[in-house]
User: Fold these one by one.
Assistant:
Number 1:
Amino acid sequence: MSTAVTNPVVDVRGVEKHFGSGTNRIHVLKEVDLQAHAGEILMLVGPSGCGKTTLLSAIAGTLGVEAGSIEVFGQALHTMSGGALTRFRAKHIGFIFQQFNLIPTLGIAENVGIPLLIQGVGSREALRRSRAALDAVGLADRWKERPNKLSGGQQQRVAIARALVHEPPLVICDEPTAALDSKNGEIVLELFRNVARSPGRAVIIVTHDNRIFSYADRIARMDDGEIVEEKIQTHEQPPRFIHEHAIH
Ligand SMILES: Nc1ncnc2c1ncn2[C@@H]1O[C@H](COP(=O)(O)OP(=O)(O)O)[C@@H](O)[C@H]1O
Ligand SMILES: [Mg+2]
């Protein structure tokens, strides 16, 4: 599929962001330009503290920026009011946070169903779809349990199921494989690949995880608040998860 002629799914132009004040003021995003196109997995890489999570939060509409514009599916986020932005995000964006953000007092199927309930899906249908999403990440039999009964990797998979359950056209993930072993990492990357290959959808992944780089269609490298390099990957070989023993 040619993506050159389509409008980008995400269009970040000249974005600026500082944190702190006085002598503690730091320049976190410096005239950042970045596009993500339908049909692709875009990976954003760079050293800790370079601004990756800040940029993802701005794209997800959870963090305002000081200058520049961010359009998602042609909608300029800064022009939307709070309620409209919340509805837009709920429908269009699935977000996997670095810290998972699961609700401890709810069972994991209830956690996964939250985006569906926000959209007005009935509770029985929400439960059915949540269990199917948990099945896709290998956790079907745990659906009644609370998050604290699960390992870090299992919690991460619950967060992934929650981000995918409502089939949002844009999936944004902050270090989605950090806590996963090879087998589950591979399952999750195949899920992301299916998202990116379905019409009009895209996946943006922040990652340090060199086991997954071959799944990227494009890699943007960030350093000290700037995008310093962008590389398109052609897949002469199908992407594959590199198992630990192959790296060492
Ligand atoms: N809410 C915040 N308040 C103040 N400083 C922050 C905040 N969030 C991030 N920072 C700082 O901004 C810089 C970029 O952070 P972050 O986007 O989390 O980097 P990365 O995800 O690449 O590790 C870091 O120096 C971090 O300490
Ligand atoms: Mg981060």
Number 2:
Amino acid sequence: MTTHPPAFKPVAGNTGLEQVLATVWACLREGAAPGRSPYSIAQLATVSTDGSAKVRYVVLRRVSEDVREITFHTDVRSSKIAEINANPDVALVAADLEKNLQIRLEGRAHVITDGRVKRTAWDASRDHSLVLFRNPLVPGTPIDSPSDGQPTNQTVTRDDGYENFCMVVMSVTSVDWLDLSPDGHERAILVRNGLDWHGSWVAP
Ligand SMILES: Cc1cc2nc3c(=O)[nH]c(=O)nc-3n(C[C@H](O)[C@H](O)[C@H](O)COP(=O)(O)O)c2cc1C
């Protein structure tokens, strides 16, 4: 359970903050839905094993407001997985830069490397999304030229690369919403307490 500052009050019953929370989850759901949205691609930050900060883009794949979780897909061999396994604290930022809206999330991540949920996600993925997982080279392996890192033309079966595919589920523990649109200039921070939220408007 995340602790929250004493000034933070229950969001339930506070219409303004309830609206912020609803908007945040709606934006994230839109990001995970088919088709492009400003929220389809977010930046995920991890803490590296040497303590330095790492950040990269990921595609939002699933958003489950009921359990406060966000899922993305990645290669189990990638650095971010070792980082998450060593320190599950992660942060994510997504934005609609046209509208000057920013959503920052913090939470803890866990990695799904097997089981029915992974199988369902793999089976639902389009072939072109699976190409990277079929590369025998571990992501980040030094190569002599970019052509050495290209997918081979070998015939593949649908399950080739399955062992390299994994899902990262981020359990969201806090939300920082910033609206810098001309009519906005509003910021709110919400911290999860069990499945409930406490929060406050804060100075932008
Ligand atoms: C538009 C875009 C979308 C991306 N989506 C993903 C993704 O969903 N999952 C992923 O693992 N990497 C994705 N990447 C690549 C990552 O940003 C990153 O380069 C790669 O995962 C290696 O990161 P790591 O070495 O920190 O693990 C994406 C990159 C771009 C440019």
